[in-house]
Prior knowledge:
There is one protein chain. By secondary structure, this protein is α/β, with parallel strands linked by helices. Helix content is 30%, strand content 16%. The chain is built from eleven helices and 14 strands. Helix 2 links the parallel strand 4 and strand 5 (97-102). Helix 1 (39-47) runs parallel beside helix 2 and helix 3 (148-167) packs parallel to helix 6 (207-219). Residues 362-366 have low confidence and may be disordered.
Amino acid sequence: MSNSPLFEPIHLGAIALGNRIVMAPLTRGRSGIERIPNDLMTEYYQQRASAGLIIAEATQISAQAAGWGETPGIYADAQIQAWQRITSAVHQQGGKIVLQIWHTGRASHPDFQLNGALPISASAVKPAGEIHTIKGKKPFVTPKAASLEEIAGIIQDFAQATRNARQAGFDGVEIHAANGYLIDQFLRDGTNQRQDAYGGPIENRVRFLLEVTEAVVDAWSADHVGVRLSPTNAFNDMTDSNPIATFTHAAQALNSYNLAYLHILEALPGHMLAVEGERVSPYIRQVFQGPLMINGGYDATSGAAAIANQEADLVAYGVPFIANPDLPERFAKQAPLNEPDISTFYTRGAKGYTDYPFLDPIVTAA
């Protein structure tokens, strides 16, 4: 079928997009140990400004939120000023860019924390596996269950990060509630064993997400705010006993905020993140009333088909945007795609970051 559904304009709240090809948030670890965006990152995002929307990489809301080396923050003046250069560069190319705001929760380590403190989570449930810390690869630790006072403080950190993102010139923010990070740890019953108002039934487990969303909306406005969920993603040792019930409830509860969009990461069969069992995205589509974005192994054909079949309104692409800064042009011309160099996904420098070739202007569709 034609790829034309991908090229229809759409409004996500206050954000007007020229096409429906979204650059997914992609952790690349290029901001240095100071966690300050730099000129190389400016070039990287400016190269990809033809996306209908760029969702900038997951960005820490506070020093405590960190759990990954050399990822950027949005809590210090120097970070805000550095992001301003990136948003200006994207806007100069006619692009739109929102910032994904992030707290890693238990997917961190004392090596990342002030004075070697334990990372924080919904409950003291240790994830299986290891983490790459600034001092090398180490096993995950058992996190500390967040107190009510700490929960309230983190909610305010999300709100302040939103105000900082607005000051930095972003077109909006995306609340990172996916991939086994802090908000996801409250949502899923495999990690949330609390007995208070934030644990137990889904009505309680969704509370943290909703309170963060309300604070972020109050800090800017609903038409500049999106949320990302990952109902079946097992990354960071995540499980839930009934993801359909959990995430349809969460999506339905988010309707009350009239958000700019909801972003669902759920990998297609055959993708490295795919899991067995029924897909949750169709159920979310039935209950969520705003624009829905999907992500997880789509190509131009399957993405266009998903929009044409009303499975979603937009499609986010991750790895294809890493290797193809001009991905919309390649989709439009049905041109070949560059192959990604996986060995450079999380390294330093320009190799595998800003050196992928653009499409030769003479290349046309076959």
